Amino acid sequence: MDNNYFDLIKSATKTKKEIHNKISFSLDKLGVYNINITQFLILKSMGDRECTSSQIADINGIQGINPTYNLTNMYERGYITAKGCQSDKRKVYYKVSLKGKDLCNKVDALMEQDKKAAA
Description:
- The protein contains five helices and two strands; from the N terminus they run ααααββα.
- By secondary structure, it is mainly alpha-helical.
- Strands 1-2 form a two-stranded antiparallel ribbon.
């Protein structure tokens, strides 16, 4: 295979690790220990949309029981809300709660401060 391909993978992996480290540092700095990086990234990916667990899994590339585990965990901790679908009782729509939005805003602010300090 082409070395450029491997260089791209290496660069993407390094960037992902750096982002995870910054998020982890921000959560620690805020004293938030009841949400993990995957769950935080789920919050960020949802934005203001209502999403089903399948949509969330597709957006975030998570499979198996992980979406259900993470969504249940986030719901129990108040980071998301859940609403059943009227036309299909099997579907549940999730949305970021005020607590989840507040956390995202605080982490964003810390990351922005870090960005400015590094400049």
